[in-house]
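>> received
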Amino acid sequence: MKPVLIHTHFHHRKTGVTKSIENVLPFFNKNFETYVYGNTIDGNFIKSSQLKKILFSDRKIIVHCHRNNEIIRTLFLRFLGAKFKLIATRHSATKPSKMTSFLLKKVDKVITLIPSMSQNLGIKNDLVFHGVNVEEFLPNHIKTIPEIIQKNIILCAGRVRKTKGQLVLLEAASILKKHQDWALVIVGKVDKPEFLRELKGISQKHSIENQVYFIDETREIIGYYQAAKIAVVPSFSEGFSLVTAEAMSCECTVISTKNVGVHNDLISHEKNGYLFEAGNILALQNLLLEVISNRLPLLGKEARIEILKNWSAEKEAIELMKIYESN
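>> returned
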């Protein structure tokens, strides 16, 4: 009988964490009887009654949590007598709170996503990079977005908040005024309405408001990657930066910030993408202008090769299974 693997997901909406879990789930089925427990996640779902029946059985069980509330729930079941191996992934690059550190010390194995997170956590951990579902995030260069009237798209995907750098991008995008066949498309959930108003104000200041589109968070993000020639990830902080890897998998030419998330691991500057210092408007503007003007090449094909070689979801799943099966 296969061991049981349960991924928990207690969150009211789908996030990057959700996507990272969904990416690897199919690869576990050969070795594990795999389930998800919680809400707003796609997978082989089990109810609370089924979960308790499994956890209080004599089977070999691994539970993989991704948030504090999930760890608390599973530790309580362990207190009641359930026996299982408990794994937790730390998804944030910020310094953990005292509560988070306390909970992580209670689990059997801790997983981190980037080298700096691993080194700074202060708790023994295993580093496992996220991977992309390369069979889903495919290039499609004839893809278009009907509501975008310009021929060429620069995409920025992810949460719309100050730490993600959209202010820097909007200022750099002032060059689009002289390139009317290019559009900037910002896709993501807006944290604060006043920040969105600030971004729209910048586009109006530079007279590019007819070339800038704001799209709410969508599960159809692959189509936007496929339609874009360039993807910009101008963030100041990332737990990992799955957006960068997904865009590269779809053969976008990616321009990302240096030393943020795994940008430097994913991108070799001027070989499979471009890097600039976080917050440096002029550097980003110059890169955009050089690529748009064909003075620097599009590097989408090279980006896809890098993802296929080193950053697939299957590779991530293999590394996770080594941890699941370890003593």
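>> The longest helix spans residues 193-205.
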